[in-house]
## 1
Amino acid sequence: MSKASPHFLKLHQELIFPVVEEKARALSENSLQAKPLLNFGVGDVAFPIRGAIKKALLEAVEDVCTTRRGYGPSTGHPFLKKAIVDVEYGKYGIKAQEVFISDGIMSDITSLLELFHKDSKIALPNPTYPVYLDSCVLSGRTSFPKKGLYPEITQLPCTLETGFVPKPPRKKCDIVFLCTPNNPTGCSLTKDDLSKWVAYAKKHNSVLIVDAAYEAFIHGKDTPKSIYEIPGAKDVAIELRSFSKTSGFSGLRLSYSIIPDSLMVKLDKEETPLNKIWKQRQAVTFNGPSYLIQKAGAAALSRKALEESKQDIDLYRKCGQILKDAIIAQGFECFGGENSPYLWWKCPEPLTSWEFFDYLLQKHHMISIPGSGFGSLGEGYVRLSSFTTEEDTKKALSRIKEMKF
Ligand SMILES: *Cc1c(COP(=O)(O)O)cnc(C)c1O
């Protein structure tokens, strides 16, 4: 019999989402009629594709039905790279050849790890988006977990004590994942925080992989929208952005990675630009995202579509702020939300993440996500998503007012 990869046995993290769904399904019809379910669990957009993006998507369908469009370039269509440079990255001096189009940050995380030597030391925030760790595990970079932690992976605590900011460790790590604004804590890194990481990476010749999936939620002067606002970052940082949360593309699949020309790695004894290796990797394993979706992506960067997306994002942020204010007024501790669609709600003592999740679900019919699903240091919190409607947000307020501990 063929042998499966043993690394699957090393996956530790709890499968949160299926359990959450199962528990929500188990609520009785009768009780739900009296109190409808409010879903603040999913980290996914709340509206269909519409407006300028819908128009471009329909035009692209017509286009491929009248003009033959075969395989596109494996690093993405030039029209989309140009739009990205014009609208988003030209201001940081990034050129089209440093932009690589992909079908999701999720796939790029796994693929990017292929570029680095198996001995590379990796550092990850805890808690954070679970995909970084799972990709490390499945690519054989870890042994079995001990008490939920992998000895090979350096933990960067994002807790109340660190102000939810991952701090550079004393030891040298070769690859550091950063997520800003971070999922699930909703907290973002300031210019000062990012400068420390760039200095760390310069000192140790490390590569920073910055997941900026929620960049569009950032506002305010002190929080950079890109790590390339920090001098020197182009020598050490890859930045990942996605159309998923920004433009409602989670089901369409479109993202991009910035790998600057000046980011060098050692290939055997030669210093080589990392983006040359990435180009090679993409050329042999990827044919680029669908032409239709890349057309829609270019349209998403038009002035009209950006204004429309901003309205959605402002609405998500407003819902988050309303929920957060109500939660704090009720005497709880709650973080995040300013630059992010996520609230990080501290469980009242002595409840664990799952116990508080159960309380919110059973008593108030509100779905949250237990913080322990995002890493061991997420225990003691639940994540609320503000990818929701104003209507559901209002319904939640009276329920929050009934919560007493
Ligand atoms: C949702 C999310 C993504 C998803 O990106 P895709 O481009 O849809 O694969 C990436 N990173 C974080 C932190 C996310 O929360």
## 2
Amino acid sequence: MESSYLVLLLMLIATLAIIHIVQAQDQQGFISLDCGLSEKEQSPYIETSTGLNFSSDATFIQSGKTGENKANLASEFKKPYRTLRYFPDGKRNCYNLNVEKGLKYLIRTVFIYGNYDGHDTSPVFDLYLGPNKWATIDLGQRRNNTREDIFHIATSNLLKICLVKTGETTPLISAVELRPMPNDSYNTTSGSLRLYSCRYFKETESYLRYSADIYDRIWIPKLKKEWTLISTSSDLKISNSFPPPKDALKNAATPSNASVPLTLEWSPQSLSINTLDYYYLYVHFAEVQDLQANEIREFNLVWNGQHLEGPVTPPKLELLTVFSRLPPRTCNEGKCILQLISTNRSTHPPLINAYELYLAIQFPQSETDERDVNVIKSITASYALSRINWQGDPCFPQQLRWDGLNCTDADMSIPPRITSLNLSSSGLTGTIASAIQNLTQLEKLDLSNNNLTGEVPEFLGNMKSLLVINLSGNNLSGSLPQALQRKGLKLSVQGNPELCVSDSCRKPPKKNIFVPIVASVASAAIIVAMLVIYRLVKKKNSTILQNLTQRPSAPTGNTTFANKKSKRFKYSEVIKMTNNFQSVIGIGGFGKVYRGTVNSSEVAVKVLSQSSSQGYKEFKAEVELLVRVHHTNLVTLVGYCYEGDHLALIYEFLPNGDLQHHLPRRGGRSINNWSIRLRIALESAQGLEYLHIGCSPPMVHRDVKTANILLDENFKAKVADFGLSRSFKSGVECQESTVVAGTLGYLDPEYARSGQLSAKSDVYSFGVVLLEIITNQPVISQASEDAHIRDWVDSKLSRGDIIEIMDPNLGKDYDSNSAWRALEVAMSCADPSSSKRPSMSQVIHELKECIVLENSRVNNIQGLESQANISSSTSVRPMAR
Ligand SMILES: *[C@@H]1O[C@H](CO)[C@@H](O)[C@H](O)[C@H]1NC(C)=O
Ligand SMILES: *[C@@H]1O[C@H](CO)[C@@H](O)[C@H](O)[C@H]1NC(C)=O
Ligand SMILES: *[C@@H]1O[C@H](CO)[C@@H](O)[C@H](O)[C@H]1NC(C)=O
Ligand SMILES: *[C@@H]1O[C@H](CO)[C@@H](O)[C@H](O)[C@H]1NC(C)=O
Ligand SMILES: *[C@@H]1O[C@H](CO)[C@@H](O)[C@H](O)[C@H]1NC(C)=O
Ligand SMILES: *[C@@H]1O[C@H](CO)[C@@H](O)[C@H](O)[C@H]1NC(C)=O
Ligand SMILES: *[C@@H]1O[C@H](CO)[C@@H](O)[C@H](O)[C@H]1NC(C)=O
Ligand SMILES: *[C@@H]1O[C@H](CO)[C@@H](O)[C@H](O)[C@H]1NC(C)=O
Ligand SMILES: *[C@@H]1O[C@H](CO)[C@@H](O)[C@H](O)[C@H]1NC(C)=O
Ligand SMILES: *[C@@H]1O[C@H](CO)[C@@H](O)[C@H](O)[C@H]1NC(C)=O
């Protein structure tokens, strides 16, 4: 037999065996649980026939009820198996035993249904070791008793033996026994060894186990009528490190008729075993008869008719163990047959002293990462959580995954990690457990609707993996750590009456800068000084701000045309889509803009004046580039037309026109809500930020102005006309220099002077836009001496009254703190020196803070101070849409 091999275990190191014998005789490392035993009255006790120290299982399992068997039991199952624990509640109930990771153990579970419940119905259920199935326990098949023994190497320091309900019947267990084994015993190439049969040969009822067997294997006596027993009273020599008990080896079976083989048969199918499992056979021989010099006992081992090993001659009064790994599917029709057949020269029939037969069993699913298991245990303990199905491995088997958890499950051989923890409405009290920070792969954390108190801990903001945090509906207090402002993190904290979510109490406290400003009656001198200080502080903080907001918003492309390929239209199509240029909706720097329809979607068709000096190739290259730029705050280019003299660009249509028209100086359809104005500013800033750092290659708009900020049906801002400045001069308001493009009043003076273009030029223009949004003053005043809007603000600033600066259309209905902060941002953007201007990312950060301030005021007014919903998506959209 090719795939089998033999190992003779004669020569194992004797000293090792001695060490183990000493340890084992102490019962060192033994765990002997008499399940269902009353903890107080009888535990622990010494079982008299074995000397084993049994104790109650009560401290190793948190669930189940105790019962007592009524029926008589077979002798080997008498004591300590009278009581039992059964599990009417929960699908999976588990014992947790402390073991040493990497050590090999004999793990034994005993199940005896002695009609404890009077129902006379034999239970059927599954047995698991951690995340892996070990066996199906069918007490109907072997009604009086079932025992499962396995040699298994512990994969963690906590062994979880679980009983899993699979039908209507109630799982039960009578005993759990654990015995440490020598590492080199019962080696397998892979997997653990599940016991099928372990026998010795004697005419008796009594089984052998501890202390006859130092490892407490259970040896059941066996005898057939066609066999004759031979035995010795002499001592045996044993140098095997895991030998059968000497008492077992002193007897041997031989066939009564010396001319027939000694035959052993098994039908392992009764174990419902995977037919691909390997068999592991250990046969123990020792000559117990006195043979004369001319006599010989010699035989071969034959497995299902095939030669397995031999010839073998058992040594006199000395143990010889034959070990063989037998491949699967070698047992015909479910029957495995081992024959010992004498050779021709043998003068005696074959003999056998003991044997063990095991099946290799694979446990492929890794246990959940031990660190995560420890954390979840610590969380369970700190909240005194008791959930019936939070037992066993948290992540596997998948159908028994702990409720409220989700885990990675890509590969069985990789320990799963916990990715989601949902403890909402779990009656949690106390503070947010610091152990949570050790769940380093956690993406979602839901602690909503509990009674958690204390502050929101800083560490939540530092957990890089977190995407969603829900802390709403608790009693949290204090303020939100700055770190929770991370982009890409969705944070919900509403329904915490004591929690301050406004910027003024955000950590680290910047509020000392703002406190005097809040008191808007303070003298002008103080305010001007504060503005100066603020800028200084901001400069110092600029790297931090940069880090917080570095990443531009991802392009969402939620418009009708987003992510579609650009389309080149024929001029005839342009005529058709605009219904022969019927409806003019604007006149821009490059030409007239008409309303049109493409595939029933509205579009804006910009017909370009034919002043372009470029050829078609360059134009096309540039348009192709623009078509690829998609951001929710940038107007989408749908297509273009280039046919002879006819050039046109087709954009998505934004029904609410441009921002300029919503800031009329006298009455009109003005947006008179500070919050909406801030949001429009923020969205425009996000569009610009994307152009500056989010798209490739980066772009400078060069013509940022209120007329180029368009508003969709929900008044969401989208920046228009970007990317074209290289091809087209911006027409009427252009500076004399042909290099410099831009609109008077919005044009960066430094760029105008030097011709050196940078993103900071857009920042300047944006500053002017923001000043318009705040003040609604003309960018260049015809009437005033202070011609530019910046100078106008400067002159008002010296008086220190925000009300005089703010657009009176807003009706003083704004948070002055928020207004001051926005004004500071605008003024620093519009600083004549480009080096003093912030980046768009910093601007975005500041505008978000403004919105938070304004929001908390609105909430206070509405008596909803307990309602604050901060999330990266909602905080920037305070208005319901
Ligand atoms: C049995 O084990 C327990 C601990 O499990 C120990 O306290 C007790 O002393 C032991 N009893 C004997 C007789 O060794
Ligand atoms: C058995 O294995 C464990 C873990 O690998 C190791 O700590 C221990 O020393 C080993 N014992 C023997 C006897 O080899
Ligand atoms: C169970 O044990 C009882 C008493 O020892 C015996 O009479 C009965 O035959 C056994 N039943 C089975 C199915 O082994
Ligand atoms: C069992 O495996 C260990 C490690 O793989 C090895 O050192 C030892 O010799 C093996 N023992 C036997 C009996 O094969
Ligand atoms: C022993 O077995 C052989 C072969 O099966 C048979 O011929 C013989 O009669 C048997 N002897 C006895 C005494 O049963
Ligand atoms: C054993 O005897 C059988 C028949 O009696 C014979 O076929 C076989 O060759 C013999 N084997 C040896 C090794 O002599
Ligand atoms: C758990 O996470 C997986 C991805 O790892 C996802 O497919 C699955 O829907 C999640 N299950 C639940 C209940 O959230
Ligand atoms: C947490 O569980 C609750 C109730 O089972 C559910 O409503 C909520 O959506 C879950 N939270 C997350 C983040 O999945
Ligand atoms: C969390 O991890 C730190 C560092 O690894 C460790 O000191 C601490 O004990 C862990 N806490 C818990 C509850 O696991
Ligand atoms: C929450 O905890 C506070 C303080 O311990 C207590 O007064 C309050 O009754 C608790 N509320 C609930 C719903 O348990």
